[in-house]
Every structure is written in structure tokens, then in C-alpha cells.
Amino acid sequence: xxxxxxxxxxxxxxxxxxxxxxxxxxxxxxxxxxxxxxxxxxxxxxxxxxxxxxxxxxxxxxxxxxxxxxxxxxxxxxxxxxxxxxxxxxxxxxxxxxxxxxxxxxxxxxxxxxxxxxxxxxxxxxxxxxxxxxxxxxxxxxxxxxxxxxxxxxxxxxxxxxxxxxxxxxxxxxxxxxxxxxxxxxxxxxxxxxxxxxxxxxxxxxxxxxxxxxxxxxxxxxxxxxxxxxxxxxxxxxxxxxxxxxxxxxxxxxxxxxxxxxxxxxxxxxxxxxxxxxxxxxxxxxxxxxxxxxxxxxxxxxxxxxxxxxxxxxxxxxxxxxxxxxxxxxxxxxxxxxxxxxxxxxxx
Length: 348
Ligand SMILES: *Cc1c(COP(=O)(O)O)cnc(C)c1O
Description:
The chain is built from 14 helices and 13 strands.
């Protein structure tokens, strides 16, 4: 195998040479004492960019999400989320383990929850004998729905509805910069009113490690204790924040390239028989359905140097990112067409 075209996830991106240089040169201190200047700067910049009072650097997006869930809920409450949400399938049921909450899922077309989906399942009347809702949870872009984007007006209606019902709203914005790029808006405008927002530095933004949770000063102060409880108190992690700062300041501007490459893949694959591309990708994730077993397709693609993820019996996910070029995406299409022909020939 000569060259690998790794389309499994945007988490595979490697830090840029500039990030590595910044990491080597980073000014550091003990962050549990609040004394790491590079982390403090990253948190300050994240808060400014999102138009919030404060921010906290966390090792993973899962931890940022679970801190938020803990901050907003009491044990025994419901958290309303979409039926394919990351918090449901990929965070090890930490909502139950750590916060004692239940996730109440609502299926929405293309993963895009609207206030009309949420209002009917809310339980806020305060009846002592009925399960109470504690939090509304939105994911934008929606990973398992194919990087779909919830538009700003839909986001705002959810914020208004939830707040009118006395409920906080959290945004799992692991890829919120992709959403803002696709909508040609800022993350501050797109996420306005959300009580907390979590975003990843280590996906399309290419930092090696880290996510950031933003919110009010008082919420983020409490978040520091919750992060410590989860084992997320870090020491001289400014070497990571140094890469995170470059990710935050410089990498969002190039995400449209990843989105163009995802469309390139989709266009190239649109007339390949044996697979279906359900829609043109809006961001950097393309999910397609195949005839035959997805795991088989992925294995055959891998033999030819194109890495993808089987995310269901017949569903394959491709994710574009900084470490795959347009030219590599064109080559990936050729490999996929070859694999399609091979699978087709073997099917009964
Ligand atoms: C990747 C991701 C996360 C966080 O994942 P970690 O691997 O814990 O950093 C959270 N939400 C969504 C939608 C994601 O795609």
C-alpha cells in the first residue's frame, strides 16, 4: 500500500508544523492552580470568539459535554436530544453514570431538531409524580446524520422556547465551526443564547488534543470543579493549548475547503451503481448506503488505501479534513467505483 487516504474521521488530522513549533515554545504553569498562561489565553480567546463571559479547556469533547450536562441537571431528570446524538451513542452513557439523568430522544429528519419536536416531549409542569425535563441538547453539525447543519433561526427558536419553559440549552458544537462556515456566519451569532457550547479543537481544526466549553462566568467556575471530579484537572497543558490557539484562530477559515472536497466525493460517487448518496453534503461528512455489507466495502477500500468507517450494516461514512486534498478525493472516488464493481460482481 503506497499512500493512505484517511477518510475515517477529521480526528485523524495531525498538528501543523506551526502548531508543533508553538507547542515547543509554549509558556506553561500549573493549570489546576490557574497558572498556565497559554491555557488562560486560549480560554479568554474562546470566550471572546463565542461572545461569552468564560471558557474552560478540557481534554475531550465528551468531557466538555458531560461537564455541561452535570452543570445543568439534577439526578432523575430527562435530557432531550436527537435520536442519533453523539451524547447518546458515543459517550458511554455518562449521563446516567455521572449525572443520574436519562436521555429522552426525538428522531428528526436529517438530525435537525426543531422547537416543534421538542415542545411536545417537555415535562416542566412541576408535577411531583412525573419525570421532569432538565435540559435541551442540540448537536450542530450533526455527526451521524451526515454533518447536517441546523440553521440559525431554528437554533434561536429552540433557545427562546426552552428559556420560556425555564430550561437551559446546551450545544454539542464539536463541529460548530463547520456549521458556521457552511452558513457563512460567526459562531457567536449562530450559538447566541445557548447556555453552554462545547467545541472540538482536535477535529477539523487540527489540534492534537482538546475541546473547550464556553458559558457564563458562574457556570464555568462550577465547571472547573466538575472537570476535576472527572479527572480532567491538567497541569502544564499549555503545550496543548498552544496548538489549540492556532486551531482556534487560524483553522476555521479553511473549513470550506473540506466542505468542497466532501461535495467532490459526493458528485463523483453520484453515478456509481451499488451505492446511494442520499444528499449533497453540507459540510465535511458524507454518509452513503451500499448494496452488500458496509464492513465488506470498508475492508475492500482499505486494501486500496482508502480508509472509511462502517457506521451501520449498510452505511459508510467519509469525512474530509485538512490532511486530504481534492486530488486525493478524486482518487478515492475511483477506488470506491472499483470496489462497487467488485462487490456488485460478487452479489447474488
Ligand atoms: C467527536 C464528537 C464529540 C467529542 O468527542 P471526543 O472524542 O470525546 O473528543 C462530541 N460530539 C460530537 C458530535 C462529536 O462528533
